[in-house]
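Posted in: Structural Biology > Protein-Ligand Complexes

Title: Requesting predicted complex, magnesium ion in pocket

I'd be grateful if someone could produce the 3D structure tokens for the following input. Sequence and ligand are given below.
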Amino acid sequence: MNKRFIEKRLNSVIYPGLDKDIMTLKTVKKIEPNGNKVRIELAISNESVFETIESQIIDVLNKDFEHIDVSFNPKLKPSLNYGNTAKPNNRASYAKYIIAVTSGKGGVGKSTVSVNLSVALAQLGYKVGLLDADVYGPNTPRMIGVNEEKLEWNDENKMVPSENFGIKLMSVGLTTPSSDTPLVWRSSVAVSALIQFLEDVAWGELDFLVIDMPPGTGDIQLTMAQELPISASVIVTTPQAISTDDVSRAVMMFKDIGVPIGGIVENMSFFIAPDTGAAYEIFGSGGGEMIANRYNIPLLGKIPLTMSIRQTSDEGRPAVATDDAIQKEYYLSITRNLLVQMGIL
Ligand SMILES: Nc1ncnc2c1ncn2[C@@H]1O[C@H](COP(=O)(O)OP(=O)(O)OP(=O)(O)O)[C@@H](O)[C@H]1O
Ligand SMILES: [Mg+2]
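-- Reply #1 --
Done. Output follows.
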């Protein structure tokens, strides 16, 4: 059994989360066949990624070899040493500022805010990249209308981000065969996919890298804070969530790990009736101010619940990119307020 044959078999082993095989990605360091044995060494450092690849390798070679010894050398890629929150790594040195959009709770509008904030920054003339860190529910590709695009790689073997409305986007949603493909990943695999998105995407030079975080205060949030010097986090909440502990959890997490908080956005603050334009404060008022005061964090702005924000977003057109001046202004003023908080404006 020669090496060429083994290489051909390994062409069908796909790196978790990426559309490419381990031969193309040069993940295979050594192939040493010896009678009915074969030794394969991989250049990866994440144990869960290793396990996933190892079991695929065994699957494609177990008919040809009795002993398959797959190993990996964590030292081969020294840049994969994880940082800590006190002294984070900087895996995105191509970006001047990094903004993390987060919340303690799901479904409050993080992705909508991330997308509109990114497009608003681009409208102000900045170079912007949006990283969708929600690997389990990536919906930013649909929100900017690139969900039909397929991941491409450039000559330097870097992933090419999708572009629309003046921003670059990278999302797991672009790497999976169809947008509703469910991902069953250990969180460490998710984390290593995100690190790959930081390091192996052709972002170019950026003024801002905006990160759309998954819901909660878990592994991914912590890793991002360890691997990136986050300039500001934006905490999104809804009036209902304010009465729960979710916002507090998110605020406390970022305070604890020393990530600067740029401010709070209160989303779905009030309802604007599409027929009359009248505003209804369904959930009462003053919640955003209360949280802002309690934690001494600026309130960047409030966004109403409107039919058109949801509709345009579902159609792949962020509200800030429509010609509805009132709607645009909600996001533009939040963006300006954030830049003021960050000392940029
Ligand atoms: N201000 C708004 N008015 C109307 N609809 C909104 C508004 N903000 C968000 N939505 C809608 O609410 C839904 C959830 O929003 P979004 O996906 O941005 O939340 P999320 O916090 O990112 O959710 P997840 O936790 O699942 O990532 C989407 O259908 C979105 O279009
Ligand atoms: Mg989201």
